[in-house]
Write a structure and sequence with these properties.
Elements lengths: L1 H6 L8 H33 L4 H69 L1 H7 L6 H25 L1
């Protein structure tokens, strides 16, 4: 038994898609750290060029470019967290709506079956099948009950939809 368990393949912790996503995240983070780090180093070095007009002008041009890139990197990471949270919330709402739609659908199918049973018991439906029939009053009462349940399901669908 232990040999059979050892031959079973251990469950993988990460799918291929998750591995690719992790690799993308690592590369993006590494590039972001390099860009922000280089910008900070250039900013620090720019202070040492104070008084040297040509070097200060060159450092200012490089800093102008690097600050734009650093802004993009910082904006990406700070904007990503709220976007991920909104995406997760939207997914949860969609899952909830799908579950509710499935529940309403199953209730509607159950009521359709009840209508079929009522129709089988009416004089015209029962005569066609050669079975005993319900009185028209009993069939009307059953149909009224089913109608009320359908309205209840429809109202519940409007409230949660």
């Amino acid at each position: 038994m232990a040999a059979a368990n050892s031959k079973e393949q251990a469950p993988r912790c990460m799918t291929v898609e998750q591995g690719i996503q992790l690799m993308k995240e690592v590369v993006t983070a590494l590039l972001g750290v390099i860009i922000v780090g280089f910008t900070l180093v250039m900013g620090w070095k720019a202070f040492s060029y104070v008084g040297e007009q040509q070097k200060m002008s060159d450092a200012k041009d490089v800093l102008l470019l690097m600050l734009g890139l650093a802004g993009v990197v910082i904006g990406y990471y700070f904007g990503r967290v709220p976007a991920d949270a909104r995406a997760t919330q939207a997914q949860q709402q969609a899952d909830s709506a799908n579950a509710h739609a499935e529940q309403v659908s199953s209730e509607a199918n159950a009521m359709a079956e009840q209508i079929d049973h009522v129709l089988e018991g009416t004089p015209s439906g029962a005569a066609a099948r050669g079975v005993g029939s319900k009185s028209p009053e009993a069939a009307a009462s059953d149909l009224t009950h089913i109608r009320d349940k359908l309205r209840e399901v429809a109202n519940r669908g409007r409230r949660t939809g």
